[in-house]
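Deadline looming. Please check this record:
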Amino acid sequence: MAITRQAVEDALRTVPEPELGGDLVSRNMVRDIHIEGTKVAVQIMLTTPACPMKKVISDNVEAAIRQLVPEVTDVVVNMDANVPSSFGSRPRANLGGVRNILAIASGKGGVGKSTVTTLTAIALAATGARVGIFDADIYG
């Protein structure tokens, strides 16, 4: 029996979004389903690249597909994040592919801004985000 997109989508309807509730399909988190013979690849769009439930979601997607579509021999789950590029309507300078900026500031020197910046970048990178740091002392 051939594997259908509808069968895979129906399996994904059983996978809950652990933090927000609902299932991955109704939350519009399934971006692509690719079927090649008995192999299935799905792309799941997370709300943040630092999603703490990324592994749980991936494991649940694979388990649901394998259980509800028994013809599948291989499941590949690709994860990406769709983060809004701006919280306000204020225009920004074009920074060539930069979608989000996080500023760490203080009105006093010597309080650990560079340390906090570095540790924040390391933590975000460890969860899959691509990061860069611009550390500027505008008063000194």
